[in-house]
Design goal:
heterodimer, A: mainly beta, seven-stranded mixed sheet, 50% strand, B: mainly beta, five-stranded mixed sheet, four-stranded antiparallel sheet, 46% strand
């Protein structure tokens, strides 16, 4: 049973560019949350999707947007990249009915230069 | 969500019990206590959660004080593979899945 799959694992982008990160949830999971983790810090909540809609949002600017597809997979888009966007981006999924705890992917390491 | 306070680091000898404390003195009645851990270069891993009763699973035990203002995560027989950052999180369970607010956690180092 595959867990949460994130792609790509590493990415280098230039300031001002746009990036799309992808997440495939664990089998049976319908809810996807995205987190940003800066070096040495705990993960920070970006937003959550279920039923293809954004349901909760953290304190992140509109440059951060997302999408959830009918198969429950999700994308995180970041526009106009800043150096400060360099971080590990984590996808976390769960089954809303069970809601025992999130399963996290290993993340995408984004470096903005 | 209520804030949590954890010691920044702890050491434990392999084979001994690791007891990780967490203070959450402002916890509300409908907030659960969750524990996750993050091994270097990996995503966080769910360990256990509870509301008011003590809980145990195959990974750990969670002891919550009667006033719910603090809790302790117990790893009964720590191994080197338990070396990780442990996060204590207090959050309301919602229909769509709760938002997790991570602090800086406790760096647990298990040594021979």
């Amino acid at each position: 049973d595959a867990g949460v799959t994130q792609s790509p694992t590493h990415l280098i982008k230039t300031r001002g560019q746009q990036v799309t990160l992808r997440c495939s949830p664990k089998s049976g999971h319908d809810t996807v949350s995205w987190y940003q983790q800066a070096l040495g810090q705990g993960p920070q909540f970006i937003f959550q999707y279920y039923e293809e809609e954004e349901r909760q949002r953290g304190n992140f600017p509109d440059r951060f947007s997302g999408h959830q597809f009918p198969n429950y997979s999700s994308e995180l888009n970041v526009n106009a990249l800043l150096l400060g966007d360099s971080a590990l981006y984590l996808c976390a999924t769960l089954n809303r009915q069970a809601n025992y705890g999130y399963t996290f992917g290993s993340g995408t390491r984004l470096t903005v230069v | 969500d209520a804030k949590t306070t954890q010691p920044p680091s702890m050491d434990c000898a392999e084979g001994r019990a690791a007891n990780l404390p967490c203070n959450h003195s402002t916890i509300s009645g409908n907030e659960y206590v969750y524990w996750y851990r993050q091994i270097h270069s990996q995503g966080p891993q769910y360990i256990i959660h509870g509301l008011k009763n003590n809980e145990t699973n195959e990974m750990a035990s969670l002891i919550i004080t009667e006033d719910r203002k603090s809790s302790t995560l117990i790893l009964p027989h720590a191994t080197l593979r338990d070396t990780a950052v442990y996060y204590c999180i207090v959050s309301v369970r919602t229909g769509g899945g709760n938002k997790l607010t991570f602090g800086t956690g406790t760096q647990l180092k298990v040594e021979l």
